[in-house]
Design goal:
The complex is a heterodimer of chains A (166) and B (187). Chain A has 166 residues and is mainly α. Helix content of chain A is 57%, strand content 0%. The chains are: A mainly alpha (166), B mainly alpha (187).
Chain lengths: 166, 187
């Protein structure tokens, strides 16, 4: 048996993850990405103003001492769900006229083991990945270390991926 | 108006606005909302080290890096231009508990009493910032997404694996916050 494996697993590997695998056929100049910065800025402002990136709010959430975070996440899902239904029903296209696609997520045990580990990290740092960026933006420079450590964690997962139960 | 914006935003304003990020990203470029993937793209771009998991054309996903850069800038805008001058209003029970651990400063979004450069070199600080961050990065990728990719995008598209992931995020968080974190904070 050959040990040789096809390493160009681009699409397959990427589709295993909760990430964008929408292969747009359109070529865009780099400045088209500015619209994502703008959405990001608005998102970051909401994060800070609603105190979602606050370590204290996360502690309250996990101690059932406040409804705030449950309200935020719950209403975000309700609006997201409604929007997706509308997009599907009316076959709304992108601003470039492309069809909007959704890629199904497949179940594996990673969602359990990884989910627990992320839950631990979420309660310790008071942040999921998005809030880490926003916290750094608010001037909490030491969170750069937390972010670098999160990148290291991602990297180690990539290294050990084949050996971990999925 | 600006005074109103400077107040902390209630959940029924913030939640729907976050929910609107889902259609916004879909309509402006057919992108699925997700943030933890950015950490993977950074690995793929900077230190792929011949690991198959990082051998893909990360440039196709560069929108995600622009998005998180925007989040960082948004954090800076909010704190510099729209800041609420009052300290964060926290449940009195939590205040009482945190006082026991020497956490009394509520002026920032992160507790500066424990998350600062000096404490980074103590066992407590190391566990909170380095180990905590590591778990966030390792766990989200192992789970295939974070709060945005699974809880919001995944549940918005009715994917049951995302519900499993979200339930275990919460279970992990409950266990840590109520049983393990108090020990770390007492160090």
């Amino acid at each position: 048996m050959t040990q040789q494996q096809n390493t160009n697993t681009d699409f397959e590997v990427r589709s295993l993850d909760a990430m964008c695998v929408n292969e747009s056929k359109l070529e865009h100049k780099w400045y088209h990405n500015i619209k994502y910065i703008i959405v990001g800025i608005l998102f970051g402002i909401i994060f800070v103003k609603a105190e979602i990136v606050s370590w204290f709010r996360i502690q309250e959430m996990f101690r059932l001492q406040s409804f705030h975070m449950y309200g935020v996440i719950g209403s975000a899902i309700a609006v997201g769900l409604t929007s997706v239904l509308i997009i599907k029903k009316f076959k709304i296209k992108t601003i470039y006229g492309e069809a909007i696609t959704f890629s199904p997520k497949t179940f594996n045990k990673g969602q359990i083991y990884g989910g627990l580990l992320f839950g631990f990290g979420w309660a310790i740092t008071g942040a999921c990945p998005g809030p880490l960026f926003a916290q750094i933006g608010t001037g909490a420079t030491v969170i750069i270390i937390t972010l670098l450590s999160a990148i290291a964690g991602t990297w180690l997962y990539g290294l050990l991926r084949e050996k971990l139960p999925h | 108006m600006i005074e109103l914006i400077k107040q902390p935003w209630p959940w029924y304003i913030a939640g729907p606005l976050i929910g609107l990020t889902v259609p916004a990203l879909l309509i402006i470029g057919n992108k699925s909302f997700g943030i933890s993937s950015s950490l993977r793209h950074l690995c793929a771009a900077c230190i792929p080290a011949n690991i198959p998991f990082f051998k893909y054309d990360w440039k196709k996903e560069i929108w995600n890096l622009f998005f998180v850069l925007g989040i960082l800038i948004g954090g800076a805008v909010a704190i510099n231009l729209l800041a609420n001058p009052q300290p964060i209003d926290v449940n009195p029970k939590l205040v009482q508990e945190l006082t026991e651990y020497g956490i009394t400063n509520y002026s920032n979004l992160v507790p500066v009493d424990i998350l600062n450069w000096e404490s980074l070199f103590t066992l407590k600080g190391f566990l909170l910032m380095v180990v905590g961050g590591f778990l966030v990065g390792f766990g989200t990728r192992y789970a295939g997404g974070c709060t945005s990719g699974h809880a919001i995008m995944g549940l918005s598209t009715l994917q049951w694996p995302s519900l499993v992931a979200t339930v275990f995020f919460m279970v992990g968080g409950f266990l840590m916050a109520n049983f393990i974190l108090p020990i770390i904070l007492s160090l």
